[in-house]
Amino acid sequence: MSSPITEFRRNSLVSLVERVVQATPVTDIHTHLYDPALSGLLLYGIDDLLTYHYLVAEAFRVHRIPNDRFWIMSKTEQAELVWNTLFLERSPISEACQGVLTTLHRLGLDVKKRDLPALRDWFQQWPAEAYVTRCMELANVETIYMTNSPFDDAEAPAWQHGLLRDDRFVAALRIDPLLVDWPNAVRRVARWGYEVGEGLSANTVSEVRRFLTDWTRRIEAAYLMVSLPPEFTYPGDSDTAQVLEKCVLPHCEEHGLPMALMLGVRRGVNPALGLAGDGSGRSDLCALANLCSAFPQNKFLVTVLSRENQHELCVLARKFPNLHIFGCWWFTNVPYLIDEITRLRLELLGFSFTAQHSDARVLDQILYKWDHSRRIIARVLIEKYTELVAAGWEETAAEVERDVRLLFGGAFKEFCRS
Ligand code: RAT
Ligand code: ZN
After folding, report:
1. Do both 104 and 236 map to the same domain?
2. What is the number of structural domains in the chain?
3. Pick from 125, 159, 194: which residue ends a domain?
4. What ligand 1 atom has the least distance to the C-alpha of 54?
5. Which residue from 13, 90, 146, 317 has the fewest beta carbons nearer than 10 Å?
6. Is residue 293 part of a domain?
7. What is the DSSP string of 149-188?
8. Does the beta carbon of 331 lie inside 6 Å of ligand 1?
9. Is 49 found in the same domain as 34?
């Protein structure tokens, strides 16, 4: 029988866990941020914060501006529209709105003045490199994993010219077009000098692998990654299943790299909203089980977009050590679901998962994304450690530190090394 925990013991547990969760540096394993060496790509500042697509989607719900008129506005005008609609005409209650406030507050700005021009002025003073350091220190993030796509014309040429890299930023090779838009991707890959055709002949397979190898080496990718729709199945005759099986997974195995699968995104549900127009759906995780069992030498980093898939994903991770779960992705990155999902994962998997990634698209967002997640993760951990104490198990500070490190990137690194 468990005994009740004394108030003194509980208070010291609360302060220990809160302190450790704040003090433990994070490895942010999936973002859309860029090494400042990729100049011009790293977004930061108030206008980028306000035009984040999570907020644009919310603004369109209440502001009846035609979509095409919004998209031809300047970024400053778009930011003003979002600010007026979501911050001034109603209280900024949603997670994405609160995120802007937390970010500004953590930067020491006075949000209650509601003075957008003054906020804008403050951001002008920051050169990119110094601001990266400021934000990473404030958010206590030590490493940022990027999303790097050879199919992105804005970034690919820079990689080809060679870069003086910032070692706080790690590359991840994003290959969505190859897996979800094969006929178009193959034409582009052919234009870049690889002998590929639409049919997966032995020569095409080897040329796609040469393409992947070139990019893996060029950017020193830590893993490969793709987002897939709920309809994805494996095994199968689809281009996605075939290219994955014949080209991508053998490449990952040869280079000892994990494959990140982000499952359950429905692209372009409302294309007029641009990036804000994507939706989600429940995936058939039999496909994932089949992959984990058919490719035991491959490592899969997985996150799912649908709340309904979360439990099944945890059960699968108990079956397959080559499956590592990470983060509360996109529409699940809201306090209510982070709480539920973190609890579920701790209860089914202990510390063998990565609790969160930021998915930040704008540098300053790491402040709120990690601040909000840390708060919830601490709350859940306090509850769990309280149960251990009630069962007669006393945690030392070093043990709590070890556990939190695992959740904040340690388990991910062990998985990648395994
Ligand atoms: O979270 C997001 O910003 C989405 O738009 C996606 O980028 C998603 O995270 C992805 O990586 O596909
Ligand atoms: Zn993302």
Report:
1. no
2. 2
3. 125
4. 3
5. 90
6. yes
7. -TT-TTTHHHHHH-----TTEEEEEE-HHHHH-HHHHHHH
8. no
9. no
- CA torsion sign for 215, 265, 63, 361 is negative
The 10s digit of each residue's pLDDT in 183-233 is 999 999 999 999 999 999 999 999 999 999 999 999 999 999 999 999 999
Give CA–CA dist 206/195, Å, rounded. Answer: 9
Residues 54, 183 share a domain: no
| Ligand 1 atom nearest to CA at 174 | 11
Among 29, 30, 31, 32, name the best residue to mutate to test ligand 1's pocket (greatest count of ligand atoms within 8 A of Cβ).
32
C-beta 361 within 6 A of ligand 1: yes
- For the chain, report the end-to-end CA distance as a whole number of angstroms: 38
Q: State which ligand 1 atom lies nearest to the alpha carbon of 330.
A: 1
330 lines ligand 1 (CB under 6 A): yes
Based on the fold, state whether residues 84 and 160 are members of the same structural domain: no
Q: What is the pLDDT of residue 300?
A: 99
52 CA distance to ligand 1 middle (Å): 11
Ligand 1 atom 2: the closest Cα is on which residue? 330
Helix (H), strand (E) at residue 27? strand 26-28
* 132 lies in some domain: no
What is the extent of the structural domain holding 212?
7-38+140-417
85-119 pLDDT, tens digit per residue, is: 999 999 999 999 999 999 999 999 999 999 999 99
The structure tokens 């934000």 sit at 135
Global pTM? 0.97
Say yes or no: 404 and 327 in one domain: yes
